Amino acid sequence: MRIKRTLATVAAAALATTGLVACSNESEDNATTTAAEGENTTIKIGTTEADQEAWTVFKDLAADNGIELDIVQFSDYSPVNEALAQGELDVNKFQHIKYLAEYNQSAGKDLRVVGSTEIVPLALFWKDHDSLDGIEGESVAIPNDPSNQGRAINVLVQAGLLTLSDNVADELAPTPSDIDKDASKVTVTPVDASQTPNAYNEGRPAIINNTWLDRAGIEPGLAVFEDDPNSEEAEPYINVFAARSEDIDDETLNKLVELWQTPEVEEAVAKDSKGTSVPVYRDKSELNDILDRLQDK
């Protein structure tokens, strides 16, 4: 893997003057040397969230453990996985499992999960309302992107507002055509995710994810309903660290997962998400099983 290591000794400093080459395709025996053995490790990690407080806490904690984080901030989701696949990053943390599965399928790649971080419930908002009372007959704005549309429909199913037809191809990712309109209490209007806050501000009920809640200044506590983060339907939306398949057992990358799951980072994540994030501690093999199931579908 392409991870830089800097020896914390005078001899190492002397070697550095002649140029140290980053490791590539190392054997597992030589993969990662920890700070306890006298070395610091530099990890190049990609994200779209580097401006959040959790990343500052995470970077400082990693440094305390001999890991220097070279954080690469992306303004858009689409290039982050490709940068990882091409070896420009060692790991990334910006996506849920479903998004990773969709990338692998469309790009023909085999990026894998290193570990879990948290899940953020997806919620229904309705301006000037604090319950679902009176929502029957309304048209609910939902995100139209593949990663969120199915989940948004399932939020409304869990709320008892939508009923799916009997022949749904994928119950974890239903589409508007899978809705039994006659048996449902509301209809849906798919829109670009960025437009869901506009629907809310116009007085229409809307499913809004946390990214756009924050940008629109809408308090998460105003939700009238949200999905259950512990349900099977929510599993695809567990946020993860991802790496190339040959690197998922790397000690340093797995150490980063441990550090993200410490109370210090989780407290900062909760602050960034305004209390909506739910930490997830799932075995790596379970997470990759979920990834495989999503890709098979």
TrEMBL record:
Q: Which domain of life is it from?
A: Bacteria
Q: What Gene3D superfamilies does its record include? A: Periplasmic binding protein-like II
What does the UniProt keyword field contain? Lipoprotein, Membrane, Palmitate, Signal
Keyword Signal assigned to the entry: answer is yes
InterPro entries recorded for this chain? Lipoprotein_NlpA (IPR004872)
* A Gene Ontology cellular-component term: membrane
Localization in the cell: Membrane
**What topology does it adopt in the membrane?**
Lipid-anchor
Annotated signal sequence is 1-22
Q: Which family does it belong to?
A: Belongs to the NlpA lipoprotein family.
What organism does the record attribute this protein to? Corynebacterium lujinxingii
Quote the protein name from its UniProt record.
Methionine ABC transporter substrate-binding protein
Q: What is its main location?
A: membrane
